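Hey, resending since the last one bounced:
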Amino acid sequence: MYISQVLLCVLLLKTALGAPAAVSNTKPKVVCYYGSWSVYRNGIGKFDVENIDVNLCTHIIYTFAGLDESTSMIKVLDPWNDLPDNWGKNAYGRFTGLKAQNQELKTLLAIGGWNEGSMKYSKMAADPKKRAIFIESAVKLLMKHNFDGLDMDWEYPALRGGVPEDNTNFSILLKELKKAFSSHGLLLSAAVGMGPTTIASAYDVPTIAESLDFINLMTYDFHGAWEKQTGHNTPLSVRPSETGEWRLFNLESSVSTWLSLGAPAHKLVLGLATYGRTFTLADVSSTGLDAPSIGGGKAGQYTRQQGIIGYYEICSTIGDWDMFFNENVAAPWAVKGNQWIGFDDAESITTKSEWGKSLGLGGAMIWSLETDDFRNICGQGSFPLLSAINKVWRQGNPELPTIISRPQNVTHISTLQTSIGTSSTQNVKTSTIPPSYPTTIDTTSESVTNSPVQNSTTPSSSTTEHPEKTTISNIACTKEGYFAIPQDCSMFYFCRRSENVWIRYNFHCPTGLYFNPSVLACDWPYNVPSCQ
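The structure tokens again:
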């Protein structure tokens, strides 16, 4: 039943956007991000370069390199793992060496990511001399280690400490990068945000599309533990019960926005998640979407991060959990006791891939390789989610495993229902593994302008851009940067000066985390001694 509704949504979207643009003859892309830090996970969670299946990706992207603020040069973030120097593990060389197994495979290096922030990229992009230094260093590093290109993952221009001029400067940076790359045959891509405010603030869509070979849409993390109610990580379309800005947080709305702003469909690569978002329910009798929650769910045994869990941990855990499905979300969630997991399985990944392909998009990408079931723990074949993507976008590969359908006892929730449904009364055992991979996602911020006359409050968006606001005591800004809140370790603020007026943006860490001034991020409490 839900397939027909998805196809109806596709037809309505095509009608709204008008005639589709000319479709490129380029083969569909399957872009696979690799989180290099997963090599440090324990046991079966450890994922190294050699665990990558080179036949399931057209492009693989190594994450992350960083930016040296003092020199404006690209920098290696984990020299011991990334480089061969001083008996290092040479992951860069081994990663690009995978091309020997697949002559058509392209290997890229990503720079940025959430933890790198935005401020230093903003400063680099604003200065022609610093841009030139960065571009020269990037070309040298890519050529030295045999990468085929660079993926810009600046999260996000004009936000998180950036300035409005980032919108223009990011376009200039990409144009100059593309010019320098063209003489070396290097590819240039970018990972871009999906929230409506992010798109409007950060990107001049037609201009950056001219410079980029392809654009990786981060169409996930639409909901998560930073909210006070359950929500799916990657909903396909809006639910009738959603109102206001919440109606924009889904794949359909985000892709529609990028297309309507002038992005060529064949350059857009649809992002799909190989992990789920988890919640701890406030009331075990309310188990549906929008059910009240009190924070993230328990950490996975190997990913070890509250509020997020890999698919291989999900499929090996939820055998006796209650399963639910919503036709608008087009993906399942599972509940046991007070634990709630929203995720994609092979069937929902197939549905979303077919939807993206019907719009003429350029392919699909995953975040990320190491959280798919790469060891076939659950008996669905190695990389079942990535294999499902390949079956849609790269049909005709007889070596791909058969897609395993979800169990037949899944409860289908009506599109008009929200926080309802039965729940298992069984309890989930508390994990004894200490957390080691803190999240740094913040809630929606509130900006306060400190003027000589009075303090005025106006809404401003953070990275996650959700409608909920937080408030703190009136603190005057005296210099730019991120600062802790003495009265509440879970909150922090950012100050910047605009036209001789200080503007303060307030942020709130996810439940259970404290702001750590030493790393300018939300962190586990035991890493913030001043808050003990």
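The two ends are 53 Å apart (CA to CA).

Sorry for the duplicate.
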